[in-house]
Structure formats: structure tokens, C-alpha cells
Amino acid sequence: MKQEPRKALSVLVVDDEQIMHDSCSRILVKEGYNVFTADCGEAALEQCDRESYDLVLLDLKMPGMGGIKTLSRLKEMDPGITILIMTGYPSIETAVRAIKLGAYDYITKPFTPDALRFAINRALERKHLIVENQHLRHQLKAKNETDVIIGQSQAMRNIYELVRRTAPTDSTVLITGESGTGKELIARAIHNYSLRDEKEFITVDCSALVETLLESELFGHVKGSFTGAIQAKYGSFELANGGTFFFDEIGNLSLDIQAKLLRVIQEKEIKPVGSERTIKVDVRIIAATNKNLRQAIAKKTFREDLYYRLNVVPIHISPLRERKEDIPLLVHHLLKKFNRKRETPITRVEPETMKLLVGHEWPGNVRELENAIERALILEDGDTLLPGCFPWFVEHKQAKAMAPTGKVYSLEELEKQHIERVLKETKGHRGQTASLLGIDRKTLYQKIKKYRLNKEQEDSP
User: Fold this and answer.
1) Which string of b and e fits 420-436 if b means at least 16 CB within 10 Å?
2) Is the Cβ–Cβ distance between 374 and 338 less than 8 Å?
């Protein structure tokens, strides 16, 4: 295969002496570079505003805008620009200052052609390595992501805009929405597009740990601070230092832990369990909940001052039933994801199947849809996703056809019927039921209790 010719790299030479323009151009053109020149700092800024250059060769001593000021302005315009300083021996100290301001290196005048070639090649190799590493990090990040945010509805477009605006800041974010809507995905997106993206993203599920363990998990503990503390432990806040801390289901925190979290936000310090010393931490906090925290405040189960500290930037994710135009996109995305595990990929979705999927209420939201698609691909041997891959949908369709015409069901009644059907299909197994519905066990227990489903189902494993 014929290879594409490599694009010539461009160098901008900024110097007030014509002889430097001529000599640098002569040397670098022979090396295959495209060479451009500017005779002062102001001209260099104008040219860099119009065009991008792979490297700027900048003289420090120039009339008008000097090299240091030109360097600072160029870095403001493009923080990633590669600048190589030219300086005389008396200005070495100034050259070192320039490096602290962001220049890559300096070369002292007068220099030989070999010295110039070596300096420029080394600077451009370093730039290439930085770009390559950034590209690799983004690739790894994409591979490590178990999912991506998918949606074309206005509600999702609003969320994309909020993420874009919020990510570069250090503001606390409160993400609300039903279970399975993708709150952690939004939190990860905020971290990935933030200035902290190369630091840790630590998640703590506040509903998964008992209070005594949660405090140690968050703040760490010293050896002997409680029974079983046979050695010191770093807390998640210390591990997240410089990065992002995500509290999932923060509405489940006890009032005691809430008070300590408030201190972390206000004072930016933690105190390990059993210790008298405090540790300074720099973390950005993102929290998520499926609860109505205002109601929790009214019931005195959530601190009002903590709520306002967390709710600086509120992001609400609508349930899937309110943005059904996102379902076809999600279905095709999930098929692509699960097709990697199949010998025969699903390449087609029967129109009737998509109609069923779009028409379903999805009480477990995106997580339930994901589980349903994964299960359907296990049942389907061919290359087409058929309605029969979703037996409870078929059952619901049959029941709907048999129901008296004109009757309107509430969303709660539909949700109750759907949970009953899935419980029946799993023979009352709560773990399997929660997985198929795309909700956690605790949420399922709450719904079983809310809808007063039968005792046999409630007591199943």
C-alpha cells in the first residue's frame, strides 16, 4: 500500500535581525521544515492567531514587545504551544525564567547549524511524545469506560451542555434521577472532561456499607482505633486527593456522617477514625441520589446546610419513559456492545421489536433496558432481534389485548404489574428480579413493600 507523504512540520522564527531569519531558514528548509518568520513580538502574535505552528523559535531580546512578554501571550493563546528560546550568554538567567513560564528549552547564540537542528528535533520529538501519550490516555479511558452517555432528546442535550460547562470548574454537583438512569456515567463524564481527569475518580456507594464501616472507608483509621483495626488504613478521601469523589445514593448517609462530610467540604480536611490529627485534602465532590432530598430535609433525615453545599450545580436525569426518542439509539448502542461477545452478531432489529421496546415504561430505566438486551441476545440464535426474545413484553401485549377497552392504567399500576410479572418469571427470586429490572435489591424491596406484593415473593432469596 502506498504511504501518504508526511506533512512537513512548520517553524516560526521570531527575531528582529534579518540575518537570523536567513540563517535559520536556510538550515531548517534543508531539513524539510516549512519556515515562517516574524520580526517582532506583535507580528508573532498576529501570525499565531491566524495559523498554528509546530514550534516557535523565539528571541528574548527584541525592541517593543520583548521575548518574555511574547512568550506569556503565546502561552495564553495556546497553552500547548512548543516554544524554543534563543538567547545570548548574558541572558541565561532570563532564559531559565522563560522555561518556568512554559518555554520548552533555550539555545544560546551564536549557535551552529548542528546545535539548532538538535535543539529543534528534540523539542519536536518531545511534543510528539506528549501528543501520543494524550491520545493513548484517551484511548485507554474509552476502553475502560463500561458505557457511554447516549441520547438525542432535548433532556439529554441539556445535560451534555451542563456537563460541558460544569466539568472545567471545581463546583460540587448534585445529580438526581431514578435508579438506573445513569447518574454515575454523568459523574464520570464530568471528571473525564475536568482538569482533574488524570487524578483518581473514587466512588463510594452509600447504600452498600454499614455506618461503622462507611466512616472508616471515607476517612481511614489508625491502628487499634476499633475492634478489627489491626493496621492503619487510608480513607477514600486521601486516595482521591487531587481528583474527584463520587457519593452514590448520598441520601442514605446518616446524620453523623453528613456532619463530617460538611466539614470536609467547608474545611477541606479529614480526620481518620481514632486519630487527633487532621489531613488536608483537595477533592471535587459529586453526589447522586434517587431520593427527594427536600422531603428528607423536611423529615429531618438530611441536613439542609449540606444539601445547599452539594446542590451548587444540580443535574436531573429524566427517566427513560420521558425520553423515548433515546430508546432506539440506546438499543443499537447496546447491541454493538454485546455483539462483541457473540459469534453471530445481531445486525437487524425487527420493527415490531423496536415498537415494543419504545412502548415499554422501563421502571428500571437504562439499566433495565441493558439487562433486557443482554438477556435477549442470549436467547436469540440468529442475526435479528425478534419480539420473542422479550417474553414478558409478549405476555404484556397479550394481557393488554385481553383487557377491557378504554381502561387507563396509572404508571404505578403498570409498574406494579410489571414487577409482578418479572417476579413470577424468576419464581420470586429477588436478586434475579432486581437484575432484570435494572434496579438494586434495596429499591426492589421498597417497591415490593409499597405495592404489597405477596409474602411468598417477599421472602424469596
Assistant:
1) bbbbeebebbbebbbbb
2) yes
433 vs 105: CA distance, rounded Å: 62
Q: How far apart are CA 256 and CA 265, in angstroms?
A: 15
Under DSSP, the state recorded for 273 is B
Helix orientation angle between 255-267 and 211-219, rounded to the nearest 10 degrees: 10
* Residue 13 and residue 21 in contact, taking contact as beta carbons nearer than 8 Å: yes
What domains are there in the chain, each with its CATH number? 10-139 (3.40.50.2300), 154-318 (3.40.50.300), 324-458 (1.10.8.60)
pLDDT per residue as tens digits for the range 398-428: 555 445 455 566 767 778 888 888 888 787 8
CA–CA separation, 302 and 417 (whole Å): 32
The three cell numbers of residue 66 are 520583548
> Which has more pLDDT, 307 or 213?
307
Q: What strands lie across the sheet with 313-316, from one edge to the other?
A: 201-205, 244-248, 284-289, 173-176, 313-316
Other Cβ atoms within 10 Å of 148 Cβ, number: 12
